[in-house]
Write a structure and sequence with these properties.
The chain is of the alpha/beta class and about 325 residues long. The protein contains ten helices and eleven strands. The protein is elongated. Belongs to the universal stress protein A family.
Length: about 325
């Protein structure tokens, strides 16, 4: 049986492979908890459930520190987390992934900003899982400030989960290109799919070439797609090693990368995207394609950033990622 140990914001760390999940009582937080428990069951990992208690500056002034009030809030939050974990364990997805045994769970309640607290707790973790507020046109509002912040700043890959469960877990979709972060994303996708017994669809999106001038004709679409297919095959071989790879389907599609990946991932269990934006602007730091996918995809989305590329440890049949 697993244990729900409360750390109360101490430095005690769970041992072994660790998945951190942020829970705040929202439907998205509950979905994130179920996803984390399910993934941990399949990976043989343990889960650290984290909730941050925002602290009113009035409470913590030098002469006004109300430790009893803070402790009451922390204790109540811990009880709610334990109850939430117990309820999530009964979810069919969790029970199906871990029949007869429970995933080890540790509960952590920390005072402070939720986004910054999750980034700190996720140091050294395998994954950080958070819920989103929904899907739609207003990216920053619907993604939520916490999900946006951790996706851009966490030291490990981040999975953003919507409140509605994925339609299926039999497919994992990953966007690929020549970048090293894309290679790390492919490695993550293959590892996750292996735990699910799912197939991987590795998608390279080719945007048709157009010119303002008629003096130089654009290359035929057929030639462009043929070249792109060869490129996609080389990317997969470079990351996974010589084939065959029967559980990996290489696809080449035309269009806008974000739209194509969202469309392809309909009905999938997970969409994995690399984000290599170096913009210092808060709204752009995640990268336009990754942000589009996180906001609009109907399935959970894993975001892999450049700092994660060296962390993508290859599985038994996965070669070290190539560098682009």
């Amino acid at each position: 049986m697993g244990t729900e140990g409360g750390t109360g914001g101490t430095t005690r760390e769970p041992g072994g492979d660790r998945i951190v999940v942020g829970v705040d009582g929202s439907p998205g937080g509950r979905a994130a908890l179920v996803w984390a428990l399910t993934a941990a069951a399949r990976a043989g990992a343990e889960v650290e459930v984290v909730s941050a208690v925002p602290v009113d500056p009035y409470w913590v002034g030098p002469s006004l520190l109300d430790t009893r009030r803070l402790e009451a809030v922390r204790s109540d939050t811990e009880v709610r987390l334990r109850d939430g974990v117990a309820e999530a364990r009964t979810d069919p997805a969790v029970r199906g992934a871990a029949p007869g045994e429970a995933v080890p769970v540790h509960v952590t309640v920390v005072p402070g900003d939720p986004a910054e607290s999750l980034v700190l707790r996720a140091e050294g973790a395998r994954l950080l899982v958070v819920g989103s507020r929904g899907r739609g046109a207003v990216a920053s509002a619907l993604l939520g400030s916490v999900a946006l912040h951790v996706s851009a700043h966490a030291s490990c890959p981040v999975v953003v989960v919507h409140a509605e469960p994925p339609a299926s877990v039999s497919r994992v979709v990953v966007g690929i290109d020549d970048s090293s972060v894309s290679h790390a994303a492919l490695t993550e996708a293959v590892q996750h799919a292996r735990g699910l017994g799912a197939r991987v669809e590795a998608v390279l999106v080719c945007q048709p070439v157009t010119y303002w001038s008629d003096a130089v004709p654009a290359p035929p679409v057929g030639e462009t797609l043929e070249a792109a297919r060869g490129r996609a095959d080389r990317i997969v071989t470079g990351v996974l090693g010589p084939g065959p790879h029967p559980d990996v389907e290489v696809r080449v599609e035309t269009g806008t990368p974000g739209d194509v990946l969202v469309q392809t991932a309909r009905g999938a269990g997970l969409l994995v995207v690399g984000s290599r934006s170096r913009s210092r602007l808060a709204g752009l730091v995640l990268g336009s394609v990754a942000l589009h996918c996180v906001v609009h995809a109907s399935c959970p989305v894993m975001v892999v950033r450049p700092r994660h590329a060296h962390r993508a440890a290859p599985g038994p049949e996965v070669a070290a990622p190539a560098h682009g």
